[in-house]
Amino acid sequence: MTRGSAVHTFSLREVQSLLGVSRRALQILIDAGFVQPSRGARNDLRFTFREVVLLRTALKLRGSRIPPRRVLQALSRIKDQLPDVAPLSGVRITAVGDAVAVTAGAAQWDAVSGQLLLDFEVADVKGDVTFLDRAPTSQSARRKQAQDWYSLAEQLQATDAVGAEAAYRKAIELSPEPDFHAYNNLGALLAGDSSRCGHALKVFDEALKHFADAELLHANRAVVLEEMGRLEDAATSYLRCVEINEKNDQAAFEHALLLEKLRRYEEAMQAYARCLDINPGNEEALRHLTELHEQRGDTRAVIRHLSAWRRSNG
């Protein structure tokens, strides 16, 4: 397939987002001849799937033990083998010892020599590179691509938050059915950056349209709302967790704690009592409840709760 045909290309900004690198880092690789991007209608740089794979491979292999000359040789060979668009099976390029390995389906070979690699040689593979078709047509292809984008996101999450976010969003976009884990992981990823709690909240709210009774989504939403200072809404989300799972004493405790912070003391005491009904061994709930009773001078209630706690805990 030539560049003149309907091949999807990526803009420089899209490549930066997918790879999580600066414009300068990409420009160095372009100047070194790793790729030769075309020019778009506005004279902007456009990259094919093959070029994105090569760029990510070059970036990943820089930190391996492979000599730079061998990296150049491998990339030159790989460039001739890769199509302009992503194969449905996906392509994986890895550093295996001092070799550059290419995996497509069940086959794996040395990119320079073409020699097949044995299973035991790839037991400790680092730096996996996987790029996928951006526009699958059939439902089965969309489902497979969504799964592969999700797998890529999981691989990137620890080292490349920008790329992981893009991959999770792609998995959500492509999946024929709402993907609970992609939504939840994306929301948790965004919530890890305190400046993006608003974005995380949007993800969790969207997910709850599909999974209204998902306890974990409500719990994560509550954490984000609390981080944003929206304590009333956070308390409501924790309460929803308890309504979904009557045995969730941790959510019951967090609900009570927020009510106490909001100075809704009567409701907080009832909520702490509910937490202790669920788990009589929850010492933090007992401590907060007895302190609230002591502040109100209700020593009988303190004695009653302490006695109940001792009976329940032997």
Automatic annotation (TrEMBL):
Question: Which keywords are on file for this protein?
Answer: Repeat, TPR repeat
Q: Where are the TPR repeats?
A: 249-282
What InterPro entries does the record point to? MerR-type_HTH_dom, TPR-like_helical_dom_sf, TPR_rpt, Ycf3/AcsC/BcsC/TPR_MFPF
HTH merR-type domain segment(s):
10-71
Note whether DNA-binding occurs among the keywords. Answer: no
> Could you tell me which PROSITE patterns the record lists for this protein?
TPR
Can you tell which superkingdom this protein's organism belongs to?
Answer: Bacteria
GO terms, molecular function: DNA binding
The record, for PANTHER family, names:
CELLULOSE SYNTHASE OPERON PROTEIN C, TPR REPEAT-CONTAINING PROTEIN MJ0263
- What name appears for this protein in its UniProt entry? Tetratricopeptide repeat-containing protein
Q: Provide the organism lineage as a comma list.
A: Bacteria, Pseudomonadati, Pseudomonadota, Betaproteobacteria, Burkholderiales
